[in-house]
Amino acid sequence: MKLKSRAADFRVRELLGPDVLQKKGEFRVYRVIKRKLTSLEAAEVLAHEAGRGAGEIAMCGLKDRQGVTTQYMSIRHGPEVSVAGSDVKIETVGFSPKELDSKDSTGNAFELVVRDLHTDELAALRTNVTRIRKQGVINYFDEQRFGNLRHGQGWIALDLMKGQPERALKMLLAARSLHDDPRTKVLKTALWENWGDWAACRDIAGKLGQHHSVFEHLRRHPEDFAGAFFHVASRVRLIHLYAYQSHVWNRAVADFVREHVPLDKRVVLDSEEGPLVYPAERDLLPVAADATFRLPGPGLEDVIDPVQRGLYADVLAADRIRPAQFQIEGVSGMALKGEDRPLFVFPAHLRVRPPKADPHHRAAAMVGVRFELPRGAYATLVARRLFEVPGRAPQSLSEVQGRELEEDRSEPLEGRAQRRAPRRDERGFDGPPRRGPRDERRGPPRRDERGFDGPPRRGPRDDRRGPPPRDERGFDGPPRRGPRDERRGPPQREERGFDGPPSRGPRPERTWDGPPRRGPRDDGPRPPRRPRSGPRG
Fold first, then answer.
1. How far apart are CA 229 and CA 237, in angstroms?
2. Dist. CA 298–CA 245, nearest whole Å
3. 480 with 473: CB under 8 angstroms?
4. Is 159 exposed, middle or buried (0-12, 13-18, 19+ CB in 10 A)?
5. Could you say which of 199, 378, 462, 466 would form a disulfide bridge with 142 (CB–CB 3.0 to 4.6 Å)?
6. Which residue intervals of 109-164 are DSSP H helices?
7. CA angle 395, 397, 400 (to 5 degrees)
8. How crowded is residue 296: how many other Cβ atoms within 10 Å of its Cβ?
9. pTM, two decimal places
């Protein structure tokens, strides 16, 4: 299956509460339709058109770059704005008495086109759609939440919890990624190579217009790395804070499922952050459909359930910190807040259209899917569960979207070390198998004639073909031109004495008057040239 093969295949529409939009108010509200842009990039366009700073733009939440998304933004006393570009469209839709925030959104409506589907996936869809309507899916955070791993930055919040603010700041600002544009790559490379020379870093950042105030602070206070975080955009700080908090929640819930669901009753989806483990049937878990799993706050002090607290302690121990260290002190704008997160999410108005032939993938089908999800749930997980074939090797979201990530050998080893978090498969071992569990329908692995697993690279030699030919010098394989035919006689020698025929053969006799155009000059007298008697014609 393939998700987001084209931008129009993934459409998201933000749903506002019924009383958010009003005819009058202090804040003007804009509808923003963006294509292949992040929410922050679209906010910069709105800020430019409104003549305001990007920090004055408020929104309900961030949307993914991939796809076509419709969301709402607000500006206090904002002007009328109308933009009709190919990548972004902006129009005024009303007013609000306060700036928009996450509480104003009730969720999102999704329209997806899933491509490159085959017979087994279509058969699984017929079974899974009924099951998901009744039982829902576990409300994991998906890979869009963990852009820090995709960009090689690691867990910035974890470094701060361990008391390593310099490492956290360096990875945040200078860790390079395959997905950096050329301008960003130049900036990060220069910052990494000049790290510690804060005046040089300030000049580099000033030329490219990023992080200038961070390095100006370090130039004045060379050891105050925690204070330098104050000059990092608040949205960026919160993104990294929530990323690690969400990672801890995912790992604890996955361990909870493993404890109660037998191996043969698990469904596993792979991801960059780690394997996401589901029960084949919700009844296998000893919880109700409306159960919650606490998203932990500082020091796990708000996690009252002893089972959940124990699972969190194990996850933090794997990251080499204690529960008391699960908080960030001395860094502005990075205070953890706990809340109860629903353990299951139920897609509303789930509809699946009949499959059609996929014009972009030979011998495959495509299916349209529509549903609505509450705020904080991920449509990509619902789509992957809909088409998941039991017993198939787990696929990551990157594979489903057709993106193959390669390690950047030019990236510093320190940056590559945190590119991906350690994963644990359903058996409890760190790191998933490279190809996933073998499908039992394929039979045991083949062994070649030497006893090694896997087929030989070229296959065994056919005995009917006889032994490999040897040339006259005794080397394996036929000679490049074959042996010389004895009937042709010995090799010719040209006039210079070299073996082999002359490259052009003997020169033919000339029958015309005048010296030859090439070759040696005749020693005899030249015949007189014929005088011209007039113009040529």
1. 8
2. 10
3. no
4. buried
5. 378
6. 119-135, 147-150, 156-161
7. 70
8. 26
9. 0.71
